[in-house]
Each structure stands twice: as C-alpha cells, then as structure tokens.
C-alpha cells in the first residue's frame, strides 16, 4: 500500500507542549489540523497560546504576519475524537502510559478511514506493544519528535514488529516535507536517542558516587568537549524525576542489563525532592540569590624550566601540543615513535589517558583527559598518581596550563570524564547498530539533532580509533568488574 500524506488533514490528540508543537509544524506545512484533548477547553487554550507564540515570532521578524495568520487558521480545536473520521493521519501526544495509549488507538481504529495512518509520539514505550490488540497493527508507527517541536529537527520514525514498511516510509517522507530530518529506528527500549544518551548522564553520576570530582568540574570538562550543557546542569534542566524515570524504564525494558542501571545518587535526589530547576535546587541552586558555582582554576605561576623536555606521540593532538610548546620558548625534543602521547619533563610523565590510572602507570606520573581540540583555555580533567611527589603534582598542572588548558583536578579514576563518556557513547551506539536499531549514519544524525551533541558517536570513533576505544573500555571493565563496560561485539568486529 502506498501512502501519500502531503497536505492531508490530520488530528493531533493531546494539546500539551508536544501536541501543540506538532500542530504548529503541520499547519505551517499546509495541513488542515484538528486538535483534540480530553480535558474540556484544553485544545482551545493551546491554540490561544500558540497565537501568542506566533505573534512573538512575527514581532522578532522570524515569521511574516500573513504566514502566522494562515497557520493559525488551519488549526481547529475539536470537542470530540470522532473528528478523526476525516483525518488521513492521527498523531498521538498524550501521557506516557502503555494502557492509555493502547485504549486510545483501539478507539481511533473504530473511527478512522481504512487508509488512515496512526502515529505515536512516544519517547520510550514499545511501538509493538502499543499496536497489540489493533485489527490493523501495520498502520501504527512511531513519530517521535523532540521538544521544542518547531525548533528541533530530528524525528525518530520508529517501526514496530508489525509496522508496514510503506507506512514508515510515508512518515519519513512527510517529516522531510515538514522541514525535519527523519531517521529510521527499530522499536527497542529508548529507540535511538534515549538509549545512546544514557552514558552521558550515567558516567558523571558514577563519578559523583565515588566522589571523583564535583558537578561543576565535570560539567566544565564536558562543555569544553563541545557539549552545550554539562550532564549535571542538563539533568537539573530536564528534572531528576523525569531523567531517573527514563533511565529506570530503559533498565527494566532491557531485563535489568547492568549497562543501564540507575544511579543511587540520582535516586537520593529524587527521594529528597531535589529535582533541579523546577524545585529550585538540584546539583545547583536556582532562584534569586543563588550563587554561580565555578570550576577550579590554578593561580597564574611562571612555568618552571625543564632540563629535558620531550613531546611523545604523533597526530593532530601532538602537533597542537608542539605549537603550544613553541610559544613557551622552551626547547623540546620530539619522540614520535612513542607508544603514549604527552610530555616527559625531566623524567616525569604527563600522559593522555588510555584508561589506566596514573597510579597504575608509575610514581612521577599524571594523566590528562582526552581534549577534542588543543588549548583555547578549555577546561581539562587531570589526575596525579597517588605516589607522585608534591613537586610533580604542582608542576603537572602548570604544564597543562602552558598548553593553554584550564586544568581541573580529579581523583585518580580510570578514563577520567570525557574519555570514558565518549567511549561509552560510542559503545552504546555500536550496540544499537549491532541490534538493527539504526545505522551508523542514523545514530550520528539522531544524537546531533536530537540532543545537540557536537558530533555523532561514529564521528568520534573515526577521529579516535577503535582499538584505543576498546582498550579504554577493557580497562574500565577490569577495574569495576561488572557488565557495565563490556565492549560491543560490533566494535570488536570493526577492528
């Protein structure tokens, strides 16, 4: 069956933030839109709010007044779900509850035309499970938008076990017509984005549990890696109750796979009502008089002169270090054939992390995190060996400062923060590809467009290399002795 949905009338069920956003995008794309909500007056109220939103866009010069008026005129608040009889597409954006969604679609199936496509905006519930009980489960597909709908480009087009391929293709094409970037996904827990993103929160929560660093330090280091928000401030924004619930849902749906285990740190915050911005306090305090928490900075001190300075390693990062060292005026030697990257200062070593702790590597040793670019005053995590002398501990930070970083000291923990987080994001994406959830290209697009990552996991893999990622994960696996850091078979095959 071929489905062409361009300009087709549609019904949006649910007049909350997501529902009215979907209605706005569809109306601006030329569709007649009916908006329904079970609460009396909710659809009309949502349309009134949208009118104010469109007026604001006109005032800012982002939308022409005639376009705004035309889009609003295409939206009709309807009082009964029976309006679905004239729709070619129904998009559901109601509460995340399997039983309620199933009931709704079974009710819709008795109303809509035989060729009407049914779409769910669920972010985590199985599309296969929602379709269970429908007479024609092949016409149900996931159409997962991201908030705010008018601004976020990604749409996950999610196919359940019985979704008709032509239906998924029609929603894919329609999403493009609406100015979105669709990616196909198979209906598995979390789909693409909510699944692959779990390590971004989980690694920071694990580091907080073992008191490896403060939220401010971890956030600063990940922002320096290109993420718009650090994990702690992002969880505060999302709400710890919401973030914890999604993590718990993915954990349970994966039969309690230890890779997805929720955090004791976050559960304690939820139990205590420290939900983030909406409660006034999470990892940080909010509201009037709340102080801004800044990461640590080292005092400006002259760089000590090294009797023998060597730069080990090769590649773009080593070249960047060479340029920074030349600016210091200190003479140094290149050791490009070395099996590690970093500085050797009169026998002491400042090494790029390979996952092993500084204490595992020696006495006068410090490790630093994986920088995605050199310098620019970016925060960079580092840790000295537990056996290092006070002199080297102080000097190592000053050498990082000389390379134009803002060194952020952490406990001597394997993989520090950026390296282990990126490795885990890559690993989770590899497993998603292995299981047919998405393609590598789909994973990259989803993470960049759905959660604004600075790059996709497979783009990071190309910049790094698979053996190094596997090596770091194996170190983490050996250190923590659990299932959390097991390497995806896809990565091992890739090597």
Describe the structure.
With 495 residues, the protein is of the alpha/beta class. Among the domains are: 10-187, Rossmann fold, CATH 3.40.50.720; 309-409, Transcription Regulator spoIIAA (2-Layer Sandwich). Helices cover 43% and strands 14% of the residues. It has 20 helices and 15 strands. The two termini are 41 Å apart. The mean pLDDT is 94.
Helix/strand class: alpha/beta
Q: Give the tally of β-strands.
A: 15
- Radius of gyration from the alpha-carbon trace, in angstroms: 26 Å
Which strand order spans the largest sheet, edge to edge or round the barrel? Answer: 3-2-1-4-5-6-7-8
Percent of residues in helices: 40-55%
CATH architecture of the domain at 10-187: 3-Layer(aba) Sandwich
What's the rounded overall pLDDT mean? 94
């Amino acid at each position: 069956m071929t489905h062409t949905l361009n300009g087709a009338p549609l019904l949006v069920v649910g007049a909350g933030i997501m529902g009215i956003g979907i209605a706005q995008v569809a109306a601006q794309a030329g569709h007649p839109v009916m908006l329904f909500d079970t609460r009396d007056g909710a659809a009309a109220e949502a349309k009134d709010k949208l009118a104010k939103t469109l007026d604001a866009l006109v005032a800012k010069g982002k939308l022409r007044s005639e376009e705004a008026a035309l889009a609003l005129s295409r939206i009709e608040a309807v009082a009964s779900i029976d309006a679905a009889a004239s729709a070619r597409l129904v998009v559901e954006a109601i509460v995340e509850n399997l039983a309620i969604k199933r009931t709704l679609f079974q009710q819709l199936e008795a109303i809509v035309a035989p060729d009407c496509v049914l779409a769910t905006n669920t972010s985590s519930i199985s599309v296969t499970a929602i379709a269970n009980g429908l007479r024609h489960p092949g016409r149900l597909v996931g159409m997962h938008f991201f908030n705010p709908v008018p601004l976020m480009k990604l749409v996950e087009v999610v196919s359940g076990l019985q979704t008709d391929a032509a239906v998924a293709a029609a929603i894919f094409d329609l999403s493009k017509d609406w100015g979105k970037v669709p990616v196909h996904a198979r209906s598995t827990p979390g789909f693409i984005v909510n699944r692959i993103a779990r390590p971004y929160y989980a690694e920071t929560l694990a580091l907080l549990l073992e008191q490896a660093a403060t939220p401010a330090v971890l956030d600063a280091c990940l922002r320096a890696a290109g993420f718009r928000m650090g994990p702690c401030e992002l969880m505060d924004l999302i709400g710890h109750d919401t973030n914890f619930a999604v993590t718990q849902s993915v954990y349970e749906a994966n039969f309690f796979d230890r890779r997805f285990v929720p955090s004791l740190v976050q559960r304690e915050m939820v139990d205590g009502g420290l939900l983030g911005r909406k409660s006034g306090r999470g990892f940080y305090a909010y509201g009037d008089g709340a102080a801004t928490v800044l990461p640590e900075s080292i005092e400006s001190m002259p760089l000590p002169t090294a009797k023998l300075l060597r730069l080990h390693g090769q590649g773009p990062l080593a070249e960047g270090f060479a340029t920074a060292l030349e600016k210091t005026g200190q003479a140094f030697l290149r050791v490009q054939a070395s099996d590690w990257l970093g500085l050797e200062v009169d026998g002491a070593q400042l090494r790029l992390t390979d996952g092993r702790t500084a204490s595992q590597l020696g006495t006068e040793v410090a490790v630093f995190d994986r920088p995605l670019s050199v310098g620019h005053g970016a925060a960079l995590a580092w840790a000295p060996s537990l056996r290092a002398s006070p002199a080297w501990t102080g000097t190592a930070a000053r050498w990082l400062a000389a390379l134009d970083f803002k060194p952020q000291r952490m406990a001597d923990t394997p993989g520090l923060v950026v390296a282990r987080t990126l490795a885990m994001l890559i690993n989770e994406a590899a497993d998603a590809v292995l299981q047919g959830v998405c393609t590598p290209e789909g994973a990259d697009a989803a993470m960049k467009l759905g959660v604004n990552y600075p790059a996709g996991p497979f783009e990071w893999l190309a910049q790094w290399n698979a053996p190094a990622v596997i090596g770091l994960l194996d170190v983490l696996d050996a250190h923590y002795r659990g299932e959390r850091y097991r390497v995806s078979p896809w990565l091992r095959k890739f090597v």
